[in-house]
Write a structure and sequence with these properties.
The chain is an alpha/beta fold and about 240 residues long.
């Protein structure tokens, strides 16, 4: 899915990190690297790059992405976050995109992993709309339990907690508008099993209204990615 993403999130992220002088940096950690969406960009602007993820398969994909870009990671660590957080290594930059395993309660752990004047960068999808798909979500409330609804709340909680703890922060957001084909067959296979019996007929009526006799429609979509760079006070760092 990441490789198929046509949005310029990675170059936009790189531009902001360079403008804010967060990059280039010495030791950079791609925390929860996943399949390496940001890894080649981080490697280009790091003296050393460490990949960390709980999944061996994701780490393999990330290394393949690095190799394809002519880059490499000096260190690759497969571990759960709670175990990794106990390590002694420190980093000038810790970068995490989405990273659902992190919560604001992890700020002391992150501070210990940061070198003096180091920065933790948290990136999260904070908003998303889809002109066609959202009509099904509104029409059938039971679908909300099966699909993530991105909001600004998680980042806002990090920002509030960091202010209370005296961490400095810098923020930005990237906003994208784009179109994408949505397939009628996909919706008719994906959604009806999630609906209660009373909504089956209403679902068919809605899909007939939106698609008519066509197999696909072009939907209008938006995506917002919020980014905050956190720098802890010196007193919070490991001596």
């Amino acid at each position: 899915m990441q490789q198929a993403d046509r949005l310029p999130l990675v170059p936009d992220m790189a531009h902001w990190l360079l403008t804010e002088k967060i990059l280039p940096a010495g030791r950079v950690l791609d925390l929860g690297s996943g399949s390496g969406r940001f890894s080649p960009m981080l490697a280009r602007h790091a003296q050393t790059l460490t990949l960390m993820d709980i999944s061996a398969q994701m780490l393999q994909y990330a290394q393949q992405a690095l190799q394809a870009a002519g880059q490499h990671a000096q260190t690759v660590i497969r571990a759960p976050w709670t175990e990794f957080a106990q390590r002694d290594q420190q980093y000038e930059v810790i970068f995490a995109h989405m990273a659902p395993f992190l919560t604001p309660a992890d700020m002391p752990r992150l501070a210990r992993l940061l070198a003096p004047a180091g920065t933790f960068v948290l990136s999260r999808v904070s908003g998303r709309t889809d002109l066609i798909f959202d009509q099904f979500i509104r029409a059938f409330p039971e679908l909300k339990a099966h699909y993530v609804s991105e909001t600004e709340q998680p980042l806002a909680q990090w920002q509030q907690k960091s202010r209370q703890a005296g961490w400095a922060q810098r923020q930005t957001s990237f906003n994208y508008q784009y179109t994408e084909e949505i397939d009628r067959d996909y919706l008719t296979e994906e959604l009806p099993p999630l609906l209660n019996a009373a909504h089956q007929q209403a679902f068919q009526a809605l899909i007939d209204r939106l698609f008519g006799a066509t197999a696909t429609q072009v939907t209008q979509k938006t995506l917002t990615v919020g980014v905050t760079a956190f720098t802890p006070p010196a007193a919070d760092r490991r001596s």
